[in-house]
Design goal:
The complex is a heterodimer.
Chain A lengths: L1 H5 L6 E7 L5 H13 L4 E5 L10 H12 L4 H14 L4 E4 L2 H7 L1 H10 L4 E3 L9 H11 L4 E2 L1 E3 L5 H9 L5 E4 L13 H13 L4 E4 L5 H7 L5 E4 L1 H10 L1 H9 L3
Parallel strand pairs in A: 1-2, 1-9, 2-3, 3-4, 4-5, 6-7, 7-8, 8-9
Helix pairs in contact in A: 2-12, 5-6, 6-7, 8-9, 11-12
Chain B lengths: L4 E2 L2 E2 L8 H15 L2 H15 L5 E3 L1 H7 L2 E6 L9 H15 L3 E6 L3 H13 L2 E7 H6 L1 H9 L3 E5 L6 H15 L3 E3 L10 H24 L5 E5 L4 H7 L9 E9 L17 E5 L2 E5 L24 H8 L3 E7 H15 L5 H13 L8 E6 L7 H8 L2 H18 L1
Parallel strand pairs in B: 4-14, 5-6, 5-8, 6-7, 9-10, 9-14, 10-13
Antiparallel strand pairs in B: 1-2, 3-4, 11-12
Helix pairs in contact in B: 2-4, 4-5, 4-9, 5-7, 9-10, 12-13
Classes of the chains: A alpha/beta, B alpha/beta.
């Protein structure tokens, strides 16, 4: 995805996120269309897991509700394939490692590549455990399927360098300590953290966790190539419906 | 073998944000482990505060009835009434070394929560306990004590509202609070170094039991039984005998309403669990074909858990520890049997070990020496046990009490 990200003329790209099967696949279809119409440039589709340890209460609840509504991984992948065909933007799959293990790690990655997914984000598979998965991405993706690494403010410079070494596509910078959805303080700390990330990688940076307004996005455009909008969009969707999600994204940039 | 792995199991499958925290914890744990003064301080504290060494009680009546030599390791006599004290006091000493001021913990039956709250009170830490809302409901007395001890108890309403959900919620807290906070994981599960570290603190059980059985019976036991939820009390007692292949080690899991009903928590004793990664580690989980964790069932909240210690998963795959399951019904019978015959009130969790042992005594040669690890006492289970026994006097008492409270509040 690096080339696509580099080629943009926009001040910053927007990456949105949604939980598959929440509140339902039909609703997902509408929200994706609204997001694309609203100018979203990349999209994370989360395959629900019963133990989402890296997610905050709102997304964790969405995971559980999707499972309670009968979400199945195979049907979810079919839907991802449909979304990839219907829209021109790159889609990424976000999920937890056990979903890959249950499907078969190699099979899952092969399938993701086959249906045209551009990246995988697996927050509970740290770099030292990901060697095999990265190799499968290279084997089946042929340069078209990126294994997205995460950098965090708590990582030491040495650790950031290690993460940067194995990164491709872009690097996902977790802007705050804590789970998804809480308020990020876009202060000096963020600028310092981004500087440390830049020193560890030449790839474009996506900054996530807590982005919810045009002001947030505008401030981020000086620091990063991609702003990640997750929980805020889920909240808008819950409170005002699918249509409002498109309007929300139009208003962000 | 990779660090933190036991065969194929274990590891540290954690969000990157926690990487440095685990590095720091691992370094502190390793430093403590290689420092004989730390273990000496730990033992002195446990002797003075928790009544260690706990006795190895000769079960004279059981032994006579069953023609065996049966000994019971009395972890129920610890401070707060369970082996959980061994782990929390050890981690408390580590927290002091790390200079942190707040502790958080998950709890199932509430025993680990109460133990953590006492440790926090004693050592002067702030304390928050995460507990599944279902467990809050069935273990109300422990919630009461945690609050009295000064801990904040947070009922967890996500997922199945039991132990695994409490673990997830505690991890979420930790992700945002690690600068000041240590997560006192309650069992030999989770990401490295927890399985190894918790087992180390619990090894005090096996060290004592080994010395005691040699003194009392004049030899090593033929069999050792322990209940297995996460696996910390089993790891504790088994470590005293792991090197002696002639000692058979048996883990007893929650058979719930019976393995065939699917309503159980038997990970290693049934063929229902499969290899997976969740909550930071790789082991056998009760999960569906998509990798989603299943709801488990046990009359004992502390055994009602989807995963099992990666160390036990490895010992199981090597054939060193054998696993069986005891049903809810058999467990209640075992609890009654031990009360009537030995005057010991075992926790429902620990009664699984008793039930497992009783079920297998027929096939064992007369005079065989058996140790049952009694991981905790049963007072906390009074509501559940009274329900299971359908005791009319107790019902009447509760009804009266309820009437009295209703009168006061209106």
């Amino acid at each position: 995805m690096e080339k696509m990200i580099r080629s943009t003329k926009k001040p910053i790209l927007l990456m949105s996120h949604l939980v598959l099967g929440y509140p339902g696949i039909e609703e997902n279809r509408q929200v994706i269309a609204e997001m694309v119409a609203g100018g979203v440039d990349l999209m994370e589709l989360q395959i629900p897991f019963s133990e989402p340890i890296a997610d905050g209460p709102m997304i964790a609840k969405a995971n559980q509700d999707a499972l309670d509504n009968g979400f199945k991984v195979r049907a979810g992948l079919d839907f991802v394939a449909e979304a990839v065909k219907a829209h021109k933007i790159p889609f990424l799959i976000m999920t937890y490692y056990n979903i890959l293990m249950a499907y078969g790690v190699e099979e899952f990655i092969k399938e993701a590549a086959r249906i045209g997914v551009k990246g995988l984000i697996i927050p509970d598979l740290p770099p030292q455990e990901a060697t095999e998965a990265i190799a499968f991405c290279q084997k089946y993706g042929q340069g078209e399927l990126d294994w997205i690494q995460l950098m965090t403010p708590t990582s030491s410079d040495a650790r950031l360098a290690e993460i940067g070494k194995n990164a491709s596509g872009f690097v996902y910078c977790v802007a705050r300590k804590g789970v998804t959805g809480k308020k990020t303080d876009f202060g000096d700390d963020l600028a310092k953290f981004i500087k440390r990330c830049r020193a560890a990688t030449n790839l474009p940076l996506a900054v996530g966790f807590g982005v919810k307004s045009a002001a947030d996005v505008s401030q981020l455009s000086e620091l990063a190539e991609i702003a990640v909008v997750g929980t805020a969009a889920i909240k808008i969707h819950e409170e005002q419906g699918a249509k409002a999600v498109g309007e929300f994204f139009k208003g962000l940039r | 073998m990779k660090k933190g792995y036991f065969g194929s199991y274990g590891g540290a499958f954690i969000p990157e944000i926690l990487h440095e925290t685990f590095q720091q914890l691992t370094a502190q744990y390793e430093a403590a482990r290689s420092d004989p003064a730390f273990w000496a301080e730990y033992i002195a504290l446990m002797e003075n505060y928790s009544g260690r060494p706990t006795p190895l009680t000769y079960a004279a009546n059981l032994s006579k009835q069953l023609n065996k030599e049966i000994y019971i390791k009395r972890e129920d006599l610890n401070q707060t009434g369970a082996h959980k004290a061994n782990n929390v006091m050890g981690q408390g000493l580590l927290v002091k070394r790390m200079g942190k001021t707040r502790v958080i913990a998950e709890t199932g039956a509430g025993q680990h929560g109460v133990a953590t709250a006492t440790m926090a009170a004693r050592m002067g830490f702030e304390c928050t306990i995460y507990m599944g809302a279902v467990d809050v409901e069935r273990q109300r007395p422990n919630v009461f004590w945690m609050q009295q001890l000064g801990a904040k108890v947070v009922p967890v309403t996500s997922g199945s509202q039991t132990l695994k959900d409490a673990v997830n919620e505690a991890l979420r807290d930790w992700v945002g609070s690690m600068d000041t906070t240590h997560y006192v994981l309650g069992t030999a599960c989770g990401a490295h170094p927890f399985p190894e570290m918790v087992s180390w603190f619990q090894s005090v059980i096996g060290k004592e039991a080994r010395e005691q059985i040699i003194k009392l019976a004049g030899r090593l036991p033929d069999r050792v039984y322990a209940c297995v939820g996460g696996g910390s009390n089993a790891m504790g007692v088994f470590q005293g005998f792991l090197e002696n292949q002639e000692v058979e080690l048996i883990g007893v899991e929650a058979g719930g309403k019976g393995i065939s009903t699917g309503q159980h928590a038997a990970r290693l004793a049934s063929s229902d669990a499969t290899d997976g990664v969740a909550q930071g580690y790789r082991t056998f989980f009760l999960q569906d074909s998509d990798g989603q964790m299943l709801d488990t069932h046990s009359v004992a909240a502390g055994l009602d858990y989807v995963g099992v210690s990666p160390i036990l998963a490895d010992l199981h795959s090597k054939g060193r520890v054998r696993f069986i399951a005891a049903t809810d019904d058999a467990v209640v019978e075992a609890l009654k049997f031990l009360m009537k015959n030995e005057g010991l009130i075992a926790a429902l969790e620990s009664s699984h070990a008793v039930a497992g042992a009783l079920a297998e005594m027929d096939g064992l040669a007369d005079g065989s020496v058996v140790i049952i690890n009694l991981s905790g006492r049963g007072d906390k289970d009074i509501f559940t046990v009274a329900d299971a026994l359908g005791d009319p006097g107790w019902r009447q008492f509760i009804a009266q009490k309820a009437k009295q409270y209703a009168g006061e509040s209106s």
